[in-house]
Amino acid sequence: MDFTPSAISSEYRSKVADFIAKEIEPVEADYLRTLRSLDDPWVVLPVIEELKAKAREQGLWNFFLPKAFSEASGHGAGMSNVDYAPLAELMGRHFIAPEVFNCNAPDTGNAEVLVHYGSEAQQRQWLEPLLAGEIRSAFCMTEPEVASSDATNMAATAVLDGDEVVVNGRKWFSTGVGHPNCEFVIFMGLTDPEAHRHARHSMVIVPIGTPGFTVERMLPVFGFHDEPFGHGEVTFDNVRVPKENVIAGLGRGFEIAQGRLGPGRIHHCMRLIGLAERALELGIERGMGRSAFGKPLVNLGGNRERIARARIAINQARLLVHHTAWLLDTHGAFGALSELSQIKAVVPAMAESVIDLAIQLHGAGGLTDDFPLAGAFTGARSLRLVDGPDEVHLGVVARIELAPYKQGADHNGHHERQA
Amino acid sequence: MDFTPSAISSEYRSKVADFIAKEIEPVEADYLRTLRSLDDPWVVLPVIEELKAKAREQGLWNFFLPKAFSEASGHGAGMSNVDYAPLAELMGRHFIAPEVFNCNAPDTGNAEVLVHYGSEAQQRQWLEPLLAGEIRSAFCMTEPEVASSDATNMAATAVLDGDEVVVNGRKWFSTGVGHPNCEFVIFMGLTDPEAHRHARHSMVIVPIGTPGFTVERMLPVFGFHDEPFGHGEVTFDNVRVPKENVIAGLGRGFEIAQGRLGPGRIHHCMRLIGLAERALELGIERGMGRSAFGKPLVNLGGNRERIARARIAINQARLLVHHTAWLLDTHGAFGALSELSQIKAVVPAMAESVIDLAIQLHGAGGLTDDFPLAGAFTGARSLRLVDGPDEVHLGVVARIELAPYKQGADHNGHHERQA
Amino acid sequence: MDFTPSAISSEYRSKVADFIAKEIEPVEADYLRTLRSLDDPWVVLPVIEELKAKAREQGLWNFFLPKAFSEASGHGAGMSNVDYAPLAELMGRHFIAPEVFNCNAPDTGNAEVLVHYGSEAQQRQWLEPLLAGEIRSAFCMTEPEVASSDATNMAATAVLDGDEVVVNGRKWFSTGVGHPNCEFVIFMGLTDPEAHRHARHSMVIVPIGTPGFTVERMLPVFGFHDEPFGHGEVTFDNVRVPKENVIAGLGRGFEIAQGRLGPGRIHHCMRLIGLAERALELGIERGMGRSAFGKPLVNLGGNRERIARARIAINQARLLVHHTAWLLDTHGAFGALSELSQIKAVVPAMAESVIDLAIQLHGAGGLTDDFPLAGAFTGARSLRLVDGPDEVHLGVVARIELAPYKQGADHNGHHERQA
Amino acid sequence: MDFTPSAISSEYRSKVADFIAKEIEPVEADYLRTLRSLDDPWVVLPVIEELKAKAREQGLWNFFLPKAFSEASGHGAGMSNVDYAPLAELMGRHFIAPEVFNCNAPDTGNAEVLVHYGSEAQQRQWLEPLLAGEIRSAFCMTEPEVASSDATNMAATAVLDGDEVVVNGRKWFSTGVGHPNCEFVIFMGLTDPEAHRHARHSMVIVPIGTPGFTVERMLPVFGFHDEPFGHGEVTFDNVRVPKENVIAGLGRGFEIAQGRLGPGRIHHCMRLIGLAERALELGIERGMGRSAFGKPLVNLGGNRERIARARIAINQARLLVHHTAWLLDTHGAFGALSELSQIKAVVPAMAESVIDLAIQLHGAGGLTDDFPLAGAFTGARSLRLVDGPDEVHLGVVARIELAPYKQGADHNGHHERQA
């Protein structure tokens, strides 16, 4: 057992840290202020494109790409999940960092789908510009009318009609669909309700602007719209796309979705860990810098214990995600099935709780936009629902845990006493 | 011991419940939608004034007033705190209800201050129109630059200069200051830093529009601005008011603040209990109405246990607040000092947690404005800071608990064993 | 709403408090030490009988009896459940107090059964000496071989055979069966498996010494045997008793059991609240009396917050039990069904956690017999299982909470947004 | 980062697992039953010596020894802390396993002390027979009269008098002192109260039987005495030993104690993780094997979620301890200072909570000796106090966390908004 990061991971970690310190931190507050002051904040401010160009130039770009594809294509840096994890943590500390390094969701997940399942034509048309940071994308899966945590509830449809696929339905929480550069969405819908439950759905590329595709509204999340990318509610009303837009073939949606989840969860969780680290730092700085009743806030009541517990919770969460990333790298998604649910059930709640502590240490100011905490909190809170609510993931962990046991056989039972 | 509510409390409780069911519930969603659709939502929509007029006509008005004043003046309904508590709970279920019954903070607290400490002239000028629901007010206490949970940190000043008082400083979280009808604020500031720590501060009435008074901005709380009343950041730059605007006399600010807190905490807490009840109802309805994995959501995982724990937590919180209200009525604020902190440390966190459960049962929709839950959550969360953070209240409870014990005397010590 | 205790409750409360202070506290430690030093601690030390005689003489006796019976018979003090609750709390503070006032479980529950359902002969033979404190009894319900939280799992049988009832089966956690004065048990078993699920069981009086009745062993609870009464495992091997020993008639066991639970839960919970209060006192005394790192222990880390939370938790638990007692008195067991489960799900866990805090404040000494905390802890922990595990009670609370809602009707659903 | 265990660790792990399965599991229940049935259970049953002989023969012996010493001396297996951790976990599953492999506390810690600081003569006389499993030892540090979590409170003394050291004082929780083979204790006491606080104490070897040394009593822990080793209260009344019995020199006690803690904490924590794993297995078996209300217990209420959370908590705890062991191996005790406190603050509480769940799944039986759970619970609970209460360790974590920050400088303060 060796907890030393690999050479490539260490090297890029320090490059990313430097870039953030030199290029992102100095401009971030100004960027946010400017964006908020706009009447229409659904825009890409020039500073973002400048930062992206710089990052790309320095080879700090597309780290998230699957190692094999990265090595074969020359895109990215050839990193495994466990190599990339510490970089994702760093990016999670700053709202704009993932985009700057072209490592932002859901484009990362969409790119992975196209890497693994996209046709050559799809890769040329959509993957290349995604990896170049020229376009953005969204993923349309969750539906407002059903409990989407159970995929079999999905009601939207993607049906073959001659050379076209006809897409119908209503989706929401389509993150990224508000971005001015968003050029396509990956839609998931029902193709054949009679097929095996894992062969009913298809994934289809729908270009923005296709007739019948409408972004109905951008959804507020605790009052935040997360401009300029946001979370949309979209309707598909007899949207027709060529059947070449189907990814991997009709009926393979579920399979693709499964494969898409593993690395995405690692990324989400590591970014949240970064966010929690930053929140803890901000909380401690504030708690050291302000006093009440003659003591710095950190020394009042149970604050030191809460800070200690936050430190421990972050460390434990990080180790769990690192271990899961390593499992994913070495044993594949099926070898990490329970762990991929474990991190999802643990990390957002941990981050929520650490950020909550930081808010509490900030007093009422922590509730406002003067600090990144309120936004961080709602982000962490959302992730207790997005990509499956905590409860569903706990259910997966329990199912796997119980699998080796047999019902009705109380082997540790009462005989011991009676022997 | 008798848990039956008094006749007057029961009677008005059912009148208020009826009014809410008939007049408020049918229009509430439309009201919120309309308000949100406005370019400038800092307005009083006509429906509010209509509802207020109806409520006043039916004598459902100013319930919050101290019993003795109510009986003497004919305002309100002559209710004790324990009588009023169940009504406040009902009002807490609906965002607009407190205003409709003229029982909304911070006007209630300001009115109480004027009832107990206001001069006749102050009462005529400010209290009468407040009780008539014609004007609104704000309370300016918390400051952005210091940890305001320790009142001795307060830096803003109110200094006598001839026949005038000169007010300087910066305040924030001045709730209500954004309301179009807001006509005055009660400002609290430092008058004599050399006086006894409980005689340093003064409360001064500052009319909106006095030169030097500026609302710098309305503060977002997790992205919400709570229009049309909101929470403001205000500056006082050599604001001059006649010394007649001082309440009760210079140096009495702390004394007034103490007296203002008791009933206000009961109100806040009871409204939060109402909010938690409504959130639980909404959560159960959603959880019964939607299914996943072949079962209604309520029957999945630990949801039933969480619902049971929410029920218990609400009941325990309600009993604690009722008991505190009764103590306040029968033993005064000093006889309920620990309890007034106990409810503040318990109820907002309880409400936050019940609303969180309801959000989780709603899935991602619970994060949006489609349901009142996101707004309810941020309201409850805010109240873990407003009027003293949880930690300060726990500190008060501990101080009172430890008071009867003496340090250094380990009476239950080791002698027992050695005897 | 009036939280003032009734005159009778106040009066007896102060008499009981005096008696405990003057008679019980001074001898308790010595009693426990003596008992522990014996080779055979399954004895009644003379001091117990002396204390009982004194208490009875002073009319401090049998408070637990149902008010109507008490008034009719002259036994006890004519107290309602809410009257008695504060007395039970006081008794809970001292291991031997319940027995001294003849208010100890399970005799109280057994006496209630005989009061409500016993024949005249049964009352004469068993109830009278119980109320006189001359004999003790046990209750045989839980079985080792099945999950007894589901009464329909019960396997032991009570079958009519001519003029006799034949009892077979194995029971455990028969509290009190080790007491030297234990003269009978009330056995519950299956009579007619074909009957309605609430009419299958019977309760039967089985005198100690009846052939076929064997106490197999006294069970340790975390290493404690709770001498001299204890918790036994007993077997019934073709035990024959006259059919007159059936209580209320064959098939009425379930009905009796239901009726037996209400007051018993109030008693258990109030005693635990007393135990928690005492533990908190001991913990604070120790934490004030010992220092580390230059401060009394109470001022280290989060101890003051934990003490504050313990205070609040005790207060909330007490209010919940008082309210439940009042409901039971005024609305009967069916009007308090949810609440009777609520207190059972809340109070033992609360007591466990307060006692745990007190142990932690005592350091390693808290784990030993030098303080009453280790014993108190195991008592509270046991009650999270005895009389139904927490989880079963939460299930009851949830069932009642959900009853008014209908499945499949998502009334608060999505229409709001689309209207 | 590579989570694969080293070859040596894997190899011995599977050997130890086999030995436990073949040799220990089959005899354990019988061993415990036999021991409990004895009038005097403070004995070594022959099976223990047989098992020890077999384990030693197979080279499964003294794994705990520091790697360098192990390699130099030929004792043990040359394992680092991270290599040994998984073996300690396996041993923790069975009460008698640590002794069988000669890896039981406090002998392991005492042996380490002698390895690092013992003179040649001390090693020959005490270390050799310890490593041969011929004798046992105890460690006398904690004192009943003071809060021992603060070492400066220590009152017992070790003072030089000519060629002898005179030892005085009272110690308790001297684990192992009841073992029939216990031949010496390591005593820690105050030598020079005027010296630097880290140079005041000394460690002295006191052979059992030295005049003035008395085991006053064996302490119950929640009613358990943990025979045959137990936890003693001992007095030292002018105990005289040759000054050669001082370890490393007078005044070096604190330094030795510090060094002794690191590996010991890893061992304790890993054993607790093993205990928690076993408890979870037992709980699941019981919960699958018994049914209530028509379902296996695991499927009732929130049990599956609790099982999932237990799985996650165990995994997170294990990763934290492994990482700490690796830090200790690669960066030394000072490089793992915070982590060594983190694991101590987390693991016993985690184990307590998992065992509590297993007890709850067992019903009342879980409280008895029929299952190893009650004993496991009290063991885990004790470790929340032994070797420093949780609160002290959280304090250490907080101190280290806050060290890089400066008081009074609110760098993340309000300027951001005003810029």
Give a written overview of the molecule.
- 4 copies of one chain form a homotetramer.
- Chain A is of the alpha+beta class and 419 residues long.
- Chain A has helices at 7-37, 46-57, 67-73, 81-92, 97-100, 107-117, 120-131, 253-289, 303-331, 337-362, 373-382, 390-402, 415-418, and strands at 136-140, 157-161, 164-175, 182-190, 201-207, 213-218, 231-242, 291-292, 295-296.
- Chain A has 3 domains: 7-134, Butyryl-Coa Dehydrogenase, subunit A, domain 1 (Orthogonal Bundle); 137-251, Butyryl-CoA Dehydrogenase, subunit A, domain 2; 254-402, Butyryl-CoA Dehydrogenase, subunit A, domain 3.
- Chain A is built from 13 helices and 9 strands.
- Chain A has a 4-stranded antiparallel β-sheet with strand order 2-3-7-6, with no helix packed on it. Chain A has a 3-stranded mixed β-sheet with strand order 1-4-5, covered by helices on one side. The first copy, chain A, has a two-stranded antiparallel sheet with strand order 8-9.
- In chain A, helix 6 (107-117) packs antiparallel against helix 8 (253-289), helix 8 packs antiparallel against helix 9 (303-331) and helix 10 runs antiparallel to helix 11.
- The model of chain A is unreliable at 410-419 (pLDDT under 50).
- Chains in contact: A-B, A-C, A-D, B-C, B-D, C-D.
- At the B-C interface, helix 1, helix 8, helix 9, helix 10 and helix 12 of B face helix 1, helix 8, helix 9, helix 10 and helix 12 of C.
